[in-house]
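## Example record

The block below lists the input lines for one assembly entry, exactly as stored, with component labels intact.
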Amino acid sequence: QVQLQESGPGLVKPSETLSLTCTVSNDSVRNFYWSWIRQPAGKGLEWIGHIYPSGSTNYNPSLKSRVTMSVDTSKNQFSLNLTSVTAADTAVYYCARDMSRGWYRELDYWGQGTLVTVSS
Amino acid sequence: DIQMTQSPSSLSASVGDRVTITCRASQTIRSYLNWYQQKPGKAPNLLIFAASFLRSGVPSRFSGSGSGTGFTLTISSLQPEDFATYYCQQSYSTPYTFGQGTKVEIK
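Predicted structure tokens for the full assembly:
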């Protein structure tokens, strides 16, 4: 069974950079796209973007100017950096496998999520 | 961005009831539509992909239908473990977008 685990600071100061890593087990990051999604408390899901091991990325335009994703194939991990954070970036952050079946795509395995709070 | 609108936002139902949740896209997304179930404090769990395909291991009481701009998720006989929030998501184009969610509560 594919497993994903997010890690990173749970508290980030305003204007600083949020950095999270997702470690993948029982699969290789070389094989798929990998997504980040976030969910503010009591609210819906927002897709942040995804990355392919080649380095190809797609970011949500609403966050594009502040987001960078990367993949480390040697560690079987992928990462998210979100700069200049504000309280509006407080959310549970999920990583997920972005599965492709021909043209169809779905988020079939998710990490448990990690709460990131932006506060001084 | 493609906007996804679910209805209703919440519903109350009893065990054994047939439940239908609707998802509408702001433009055609063909069959690029997925459904997820989320329980409190947990990550979303994929139920249906490509509008109508049941993910392996998901009970057959769940089904999906539709194409173009209109889609439905049906639970044929609601079970206690099905009380959760359900989200649709389009993968026709990036950015992927989700519906606002439908919370299924116990009547």
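The two ends of chain B are 36 Å apart (CA to CA). Residues 30 and 68 of chain B are 4 Å apart (CA to CA).
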